[in-house]
Structure formats: C-alpha cells, structure tokens
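Let us work through a complete example step by step.
Step 1: write down the sequence.
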Amino acid sequence: MRTYKLAVIPIAALFVLAACSVNVKKNDEGEDKNVDIKTPFAEIHVDKGADVRDTGLPVYAGAKPKQNTDNDEKNANANVDISGFGYGVKVVAVSYNSDDPPSKVIAYYKDQLKKFGTVLECHTSNRNWGANRNSGHDSDELTCDANDNGKTIELKAGKKSNQHIVAIDPKDKGSEFALVYVRLRGKDDTI
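Step 2: predict the structure and record it as tokens.
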C-alpha cells in the first residue's frame, strides 16, 4: 500500500506540470516584454510596457520616461498581476526624470494624491513601495517604515490594500520619480 501512495506523487506532479503554460512576447528589439504564466494554482502576468494611466496619477509636466540600464532594475517600468485561490496583488510602476527640483515634484504630487485620502510623506533609504512593517496586521492604514530618515521621499495615499505611491529622489539638479499603484485582493475583492 505504501508503494502505491509513493507512485501517485510523481504522477500527480506530472499532471500539474503538464497543466502549466508559459507565454512570452518579445518587443521589436527581441527583449521580453510580456510574460504570462498559468498554473492550476495561480496566474502571473508581467508587462514591462506599463501604462502610466494604470497608476491613476498624471505625469508631472515636462517629465520624461526614465531610460533603464541593465544594472538599474529597481526603477524598471512594470505592470505585474499575480492571482490565485481568491487572492492577488497588482503592482504598476512607471519611472520618470524631471529637470525640476524634488520640492516642486513633491508639491505637485501631494496635491494629486489628495483624491485618494490623507497623504503621508515618508523618508526612506530604499524604495519599499508600500511595505508597512510597523503597522498592525488587522489595520489597512498606511504608515511610514521605521527607517524614516533617507533621501528618498515617498508620498503615499489610500489604504494598504489599495494605495498610490510617488517615490522621489534628487538627481543632479533635477528629480527622478516613480509612480506606483499597489492593489491587494482578498477572496471577496476584485482587482
């Protein structure tokens, strides 16, 4: 009887693997642009050509899309959607450069974020984009991270489950900033 149970595991694994599908679409330069992965348990969609409209925020006047380098993945543009078993997460991030100083970009986006709720201004040394480690498990309120002393300014509005973030860094005489939308979905919500 024990041998029978052990033989079922590899057969079941083969069925699960056979049910997986991976679809990769390339851009004109031959680089991966979209990746779709489907399994019996979850689906993952990654699009490197994120549309700024999906962040719910306008682009700061005169800003130019940030050109990513191979070693600068933290600022990559992406639209990622992961879902399975009634739960999911959607993250849209788009990066820009502006010749204006951070103070002007901050003032503009503080005003734009008001429509989503109270605007928090956080200072961090790395972009966590909504990782609120110091808040309670049951709370959906946004907070700043414990590391609230870096040069990156994160403006946050909304709730942990549905938040808009603008991360602004000084760059030469101008600014580098990312517009980010994060949506968490539970089994009773939709993305």
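Step 3: interpret the result. The two ends are 46 Å apart (CA to CA).
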